[in-house]
Amino acid sequence: QVQLVESGGGLVQAGGSLRLSCAASGRTLNSRALGWFRQAPGKEREFVGAISWRGTTIFYGDSVKGRVTISRDNAKNTVYLQMNSLKPEDTAVYYCAAAQAPSHSQYDYTSWGQGTQVTVSS
To answer: What is the pLDDT at residue 1?
Structure first.
């Protein structure tokens, strides 16, 4: 089973940008789709976006569409989440997860990272 480690979170002012990374270890991300989710305190886990193995299929959640971009570098076993125009409501723990195919549903993902905190101040 692939192990995933997120990094790049932190504190940023509203309007700022962050790039999160999700690195695989143990096994490669070979043929696996990657998804990003987030969870704020007291809220359900929310889909942010997903990317297929070859990067040919990418889609985003409605709340972040137009402000985030997912990309991947399979040679580095890493997937990225570029977030721009951040808002206080983007504050959450962000998780990456691996699946057989890109999906909106967290239940389709079998390997999860530990999460990285993103805090956006107003």
So the answer is: 75
Q: How many residues does the chain have?
A: 122
Question: Tokens representing 120?
Answer: 């956006």
Q: What are phi and psi of 120, to 5 degrees?
A: -110, 120
First to last CA, the chain: 39
- Please, are residues 9 and 118 in contact by the beta-carbon 8 Å criterion? yes
**Using one digit for the tens of pLDDT, what is the confidence trace for 35-61?**
999 999 999 999 999 999 999 999 999
Collapsed DSSP state (helix, strand, coil) of residue 34? strand
**Neighbour-count burial of 26, counting CB atoms closer than 10 A to its CB (0-12 exposed, 13-18 middle, 19+ buried):** exposed
Residue whose tokens read 């990003």: 36
